[in-house]
Design goal:
Helix content: 55-70%
Oligomer: single chain
Strand content: under 5%
Largest sheet: none
Mean pLDDT: 76
CATH class: Mainly Alpha
Radius of gyration: 14 Å
Shape: globular
Distance between the termini: 47 Å
CATH topology: Arc Repressor Mutant, subunit A
CATH architecture: Orthogonal Bundle
Low-confidence stretches: 4-12
Length: about 110
């Protein structure tokens, strides 16, 4: 499956996913992006300059945060589901824009 993107068709961005996405660290987001592009853990690790165990740890944290936010159900928490369900490759920029807007709306005084 390496090299084959896990997303076939775009889907609307789910609000719970936006909330979960904002809770991820930058490195967790990078790991998710690479996995949704179809890279395996080892290839993602090489791209990020970290060990494949670190990638696994990042993804475990991602699943926990997605489940806690209600973005995925525990029995469906796998990478393919996350990528396919949210149309991740297509929606990523929208999610990041929505997350930035949400952050700005929470702290408008910082925008001055």
């Amino acid at each position: 499956m390496s090299g084959t993107p896990l997303v076939d068709t775009p889907a609307p961005t789910h609000p719970d996913f936006v909330r979960a996405w904002t809770a991820l660290t930058q490195q967790q987001r990078r790991a998710v992006r690479l996995r949704c592009r179809g890279l395996g853990n080892q290839a993602a690790a090489a791209e990020l300059g970290i060990s494949d165990n670190s990638v696994k740890n990042h993804l475990t944290a991602v699943f926990r945060k997605m489940i806690a936010a209600g973005a995925v159900a525990p029995h469906t928490a796998d990478m393919a589901h996350i990528c396919r369900h949210y149309g991740y490759a297509q929606a990523l920029q929208d999610v990041e824009r929505q997350a930035a807007q949400l952050a700005r709306s929470r702290h408008p005084e910082e925008q001055r």
